[in-house]
Amino acid sequence: MIEQALRSFCEATRRTLIVIAGTFVVGLVLVLPLVDVLRNGHDEKEGLTTELDSARTIAAGLEGFEKRVTEKLAELEVFEARTVDDASMPVLRGKLVDLAKETGCSVRRITVGAAASRPWLPGESPIGPADPKHHEASSTFKLEWRPVSISLSGTSANLRTMMDRINDSGMLMHAKTFEMYPSSPSRQSLTLDLELWYYTLARRS
Predict the structure, then answer these.
(1) In this predicted structure, what is the pLDDT of residue 166?
(2) Residue 106: helix, strand or coil by DSSP?
(3) What's the confidence (pLDDT) of residue 188?
(4) Could you tell me where the DSSP H helices lie in 12-136?
(5) pLDDT value at position 5?
């Protein structure tokens, strides 16, 4: 029966059209699944490319953010080096003694007073009184100051150099009182009494 069907096919006048039609059908059967695979692959590639671009954007943003954080931490470190709190007060005392030795002055006395504080808002003067218009609850920081009284003796030139070195130290401080008077009958040696207020900012608890 199969031989008869083949013979009939070979003798058919339209066997060329039959062959073409069969080839086309086989082509569709083979090509259409491939088209679906290519379309799905393209969509998947496009999705992955979009996710990769998004990840690169986020990574670039994080890199910039980390750079800003590093810069701000460096600025904060510089600022804190100019302030004095209870922990750094012994270091400050040592620096003042060293400055006196370097400038040829003698330390007669160094006294550290009790720390004081008040609420502080940006723009306020650390020297003047607190602005009464600013409610205490609106401030997240407090301004702290620690008075340091130091009495020095030396020549006029030595004491002047000592004062310049203190002023050039870059510390956040204010000379509250200043008094200079002779400490010897010849007036060759002078005594300098200073009260310095050293400041820092602290977050209110």
Answers:
(1) 93
(2) strand
(3) 81
(4) 15-81, 89-102
(5) 47
Buried (b) or exposed (e) across 62-101, using 16+ Cβ within 10 A?
eeeeeeeeeeeeeeeeeeeeebbbeebeeebeeebeebbe
**Confidence tier at 195 by pLDDT (50, 70, 90):** very high
CB proximity list for 119: less than 8 A, separation 6 or greater: 130, 134, 136, 139, 141, 142, 143, 204
CA distance 201 to 122: 11
88 DSSP β-pair partners: none
In sequence order, the 6+-apart residues with CB closer than 8 A to the CB of 109 are: 149, 150, 151
Measured between alpha carbons, how far is 99 from 110 in angstroms, rounded to an integer?
13
Q: Which helix (H) or strand (E) holds 183?
A: none
**Bridge partners, 182 (sequence order):** 190
Which of these ranges, 31-45, 73-87, 94-108, has the smallest mean pLDDT?
31-45
CA dist list (Å): 166 to 7, 101, 204: 117, 13, 29
Provide the token pair at 93: 């005392």
The whole-number average pLDDT for the span 133-149 is 79
